[in-house]
């Protein structure tokens, strides 16, 4: 019989001694999600400024292009959240990306409800981005695209699979 090392497992009422190793990294790291959200906003600012510079040189800027700007920022936000969390599972890494997307969606929705003038000043392209009558389906599709972009960034930031392993 092989001897196993005993580990102390901290609890709120002292510590337990058990033979099973404590598993870390299987839960959601809210610190990583918050930092990923900040990184997503920080990535969005230069992308928005670049778009405004390019749009000024184009003859007819607009359409759906301004709505695609958040996708690279969400990929970066999901990647950074999953990398910072250091999780050992790809599903949990993708969950970090989805959590960053949800956090940023709540912030943007709250800004649209409680401070629409401020949001209009920051991103004036959003008002005319969706054609009349198709606004809700287009915005819903773009929100889902953001969800998948953030999850993809989380998967890319998660653990790498070794060759030969399924």
TrEMBL record:
Bilayer-crossing regions: 30-51, 63-85, 92-114, 134-156
Superkingdom as given in the UniProt entry: Bacteria
Entry keyword Transmembrane: yes
Keywords: Membrane, Transmembrane, Transmembrane helix
Keyword Transmembrane helix: yes
Protein name per its UniProtKB record: Uncharacterized protein
